[in-house]
Specification:
It is an enzyme of class 2 (transferase). The chain is built from 18 helices and 27 strands. The protein is an alpha+beta fold. α18 links the parallel β26 and β27.
């Protein structure tokens, strides 16, 4: 279950954050602002930027959207040729200012700032050990564990300290660490979260998605490799592996839902991948209908693909209201239930009297799907056929998506027919696992074509001992391949 920044309950998956870093540009903070704005869809609860002029770090963080946290005056104070930035959606740690990133620390070896996308599955165990050894934690974010491990390593060079920390953590992390003079980048050995490297003039840019490169005029160079460590400083760029090869397991929902359509993930354009998902869905589950519509925004590409494959006209049958603010928070459950109506509305003249195919990317709890089907029926739809461009989500994610218990997932305990009845659709179909992998089209020789499929299959790419212990039996049937399998 997701929740908007205004507190409105919204039944969708949410990812933890997006990161952006730049080295070698006199307006580093300003460009980081633009990069974070392009990544705003990855986190809307807090935003932060830390810059360095080669001598000192300056930073600002705040709760809210990038445009709310920063203005010209605040950006002007963040001077330097190097900066990292972060937008956050909370999964590990509470939604409060002290957890906003980048986290900034002062150690005996100097200052450092950290920005992290993902989730560490063993951070509780490490945190307890560090607390017994005398560490004091200022946040409830798992990212702070990394800072303490670096500080306790005794290494004078930040890259050496980070290697020491990376040898102890497990899970998903696209990580940026900045000191007064260096920018260090690391991606977990399974490459669960996306991270790309670009060039801007003589400088370098790193970002969670390539759409951020377009926003600042940078040129895409390549993806950061799983288990790779990059060091960027006045000597240029150096690359190394900090981990033995592990199975590539990029989060499949980057293609299905998270990433912006204009981004390329693993060399594949997200919009085109989603269109192929829609076309495969049409191949597997055609239906006699009059109109196809997608749930905005992430399902529109798949809906277009479905319409093209079937010849059924695509229409904007659902419109998203992007300006629902805090004014609309209401104290009663009856009024909170109006949340979907405030965020989505059906176009009556498009759907009235029609047999409608509604394309969506996933069903989490089923509450939003039920409300959307009801909206379409109230607008006069004669039939509503729901097609989902991913398999049923039956297992929790421990890598930075906000589904940590099976009880949150309707597909974990109900059959497809039971879900159909629960949401009130005339028919319901989920794309097959094989069809999804074929449609996305990653030319990867790894198992599962280099995807993490844990939320669909319950087979996790890393060890999960700490995560399973903290959630007890709620994880239900989790299987792990291990880091080196």
């Amino acid at each position: 279950m997701g929740c908007d920044r205004d507190g409105m309950i919204w039944d969708e998956l949410n990812e933890e954050c997006g990161v952006f870093g730049i080295y070698g540009h006199p307006e580093a903070a300003r460009l980081t602002y633009y990069g974070l704005h392009a990544l705003q869809h990855r986190g809307q609860e807090s935003a932060g930027i830390c810059a360095s002029d080669g001598e000192r770090l300056t930073f600002h963080r705040g709760m809210g959207l990038v445009t709310e946290v920063f203005d010209a005056a605040r950006l002007a104070k963040l001077r330097g040729h190097m900066a990292i930035g972060h937008v956050r959606y909370t999964t590990a740690g509470e939604s409060r200012l002290e957890n906003a990133q980048p986290l900034v620390f002062t150690t005996g070896a100097g200052s450092m700032a950290l920005a992290h996308n993902g989730n560490l599955v063993n951070y509780r165990r490490i945190k307890h050990r560090l607390e017994r050894q005398g560490s004091l934690f200022q946040t409830s974010s798992d990212t702070e564990v990394i800072a303490h491990l670096i500080a306790r390593s005794g290494c004078e060079e930040i890259a050496d300290g980070l290697r020491h920390a990376l040898a102890q953590i497990q899970g998903a992390y696209a990580l940026l660490v900045m000191t007064e003079r260096k920018l260090v980048v690391a991606l977990d050995p399974n490459g669960i979260r996306p991270l790309s490297l670009g060039r801007l003039g003589d400088g370098y840019v790193v970002a969670s998605e390539t759409c951020a490169f377009d926003a600042v005029g940078a040129t895409y160079v390549r993806d950061v490799e799983p288990g790779e460590l990059l060091v960027i400083d006045e000597g240029g760029l150096s690359c190394e592996r900090f981990s033995a090869h592990a199975r590539r397991a990029i989060c499949t929902f980057e293609y299905i839902y998270f990433a912006r359509p204009d981004s390329d993930v693993g060399g594949l354009n997200v919009h085109l991948a989603r269109k192929r998902l829609g076309r495969k869905l049409a191949e597997e589950a055609p239906v006699d209908a009059d109109v196809v519509t997608g749930v905005p925004d992430s399902s529109i590409s798949a809906a277009i693909g479905y319409a093209e494959a079937t010849g059924i006209p695509y229409e904007l049958g659902l419109i998203k209201n992007r300006y629902v603010g805090r004014t609309f928070i209401q104290p009663t459950q009856a009024l909170r239930a109006q949340g979907v109506r405030m965020k989505l509305s059906a176009v009556r003249q498009v759907v009235a009297g029609k047999r409608v195919v509604m394309i969506d990317d996933s069903i989490v709890r089923g509450t939003t799907s039920r409300h959307i089907v009801q909206l379409l029926r109230e607008a006069g739809a004669k039939e509503v056929h729901v097609r989902i461009s991913s398999p049923p989500v039956r297992h929790p994610c421990f890598y930075g998506i906000d589904t940590s218990t099976r009880e949150e997932l309707i597909a974990a305990t109900r059959s497809v027919e039971e879900i159909r009845r629960a949401i009130g659709a005339d028919s319901l179909y989920f794309l097959s696992l094989e069809g999804m992998l074929e449609a996305i089209g990653r030319p990867d020789g790894e198992a599962d074509r280099g995807h993490c499929l844990a939320c669909f299959t319950g087979c996790y790419p890393t060890a999960l001992d700490d995560a399973l212990a903290s959630h007890g039996a709620e994880a239900g049937g989790a299987r792990t391949r291990g880091r080196d399998s």
